[in-house]
Structure formats: C-alpha cells, structure tokens
Amino acid sequence: MASRLKKPSLSLVGLSTLLFNRASRRLLVLWVSGLMLAACGFEPIYRADNLSAGVLSSLEVPDSRLGRQLERSLQSRLRLLPDAPWAASLKIYETLENRQLDSQGVAQGSRLTHRLELALRARADGQTRLVDFSETQFLSRSDSGGDEVAKVRALRALAVQGLSQKLATFLESLASEPTR
Predict the structure, then answer these.
(1) Could you tell me the pTM of the whole model?
(2) How many other C-beta atoms lie within 10 A of the C-beta of residue 1?
(3) Residue-wise over 135-169: b if at least 16 C-beta within 10 A, else e?
(4) Residue ranges with strand state E in 66-127
(5) CA–CA dist 115, 118 (Å, integer)
(6) pLDDT value for 130
C-alpha cells in the first residue's frame, strides 16, 4: 500500500501538491506579483510630501492652465507663513518639439518639455536667487488626433507633478539651510 505524502517534498508530486494547495497558490501569487512590482520600479509611498518648515511667505503662480495645475499640486505640499524668510514667484514654460520626421516630413515622435523658473527673494536683504527645474517626456504619433491630445494632457499632468515634487524637495533643502 502506498503511503500518502503528509508534507510536500521537492519531488514532482510534492511540488504539484504545493501548487494545488489554495494557501500556497495565494502565497506564490503574492510573491511573484511583489517580484514583478519590484522589477518595474514601483516604490510605495510611506510619507506625505508636506513641507513642514515654513520657508515661503508668498508664492506667485502664473494665471494660466499650467499655472493653475501647478498651484493645485503645490497646495497640499506647501505651507505659507507670513514671517517666512523667502517670497517666491514662478514662471512655467511648455515646448513641444517635433522629432523623428519621416520621408514626407511628418513627425513620428515629439518631445514635450516643461521648464519651471523659480525666483526666490530674501525678505531680509532683498537678494534674488533664480532656480530652474525641467521635466521632459517623449510622445509617439498615433493615427488618432484625439489620442494624441489625451497623451499630451496626461504627460502635462505628469510633468506638473514632477515639477511640484522637485520644487518641494528644493524648498525642503532650503529650509535646512541656515538663514542669513
């Protein structure tokens, strides 16, 4: 009489028993999905991006679509205090450059660049400090004009998030600098 396997072994029968066990399958799926997420560059967020130190007393943002998007993105990250040492003004620029032209001169790809110009003015002595940040994305041409418009909007939103993250990180480093 054949004995039944009580513990799965590394034999073919043991591995098949392990894979057909419901709990083992769940564990295997979790392990493989974690491995795939780690390979794609996914990073979990463990903290909020709020700037705890009050660095800015005022922030001027351009009255444009990109400016309003940037302002909404920064509202949750920055805290303005009236007695903070710096006042800031922002300018944002967008350029769309056609690249990879085919034989008829039609662009097969484009480069979308967003540049954020930050002007910091020290309230104590009035000196100005200029800092630039940029985000670049690449876009391939599709047959549908609606798809291209949707891609540009999505890339624009990603660029604004990236620029606001870079700005918040810079202001965090500015908060740790000793003031004059």
Answers:
(1) 0.64
(2) 3
(3) bebebebeeeeeeeeebbeebbeebbebbbbbbbe
(4) 86-101, 107-122
(5) 10
(6) 94
pLDDT of residue 49: 47
What count of other Cβ atoms lies within 10 Å of the Cβ of residue 28?
13
Are 160 and 134 within 8 A, CB to CB? no
Give the model's pLDDT for residue 166. 92
Q: What is the DSSP string of 112-177?
A: EEEEEEEEEEETTT--EEEEEEEEEEEEE--S-HHHHHHHHHHHHHHHHHHHHHHHHHHHHHHHHS
Q: How far is CA 25 from CA 9, 10, 32, 83, 162, in A?
A: 16, 16, 10, 58, 38
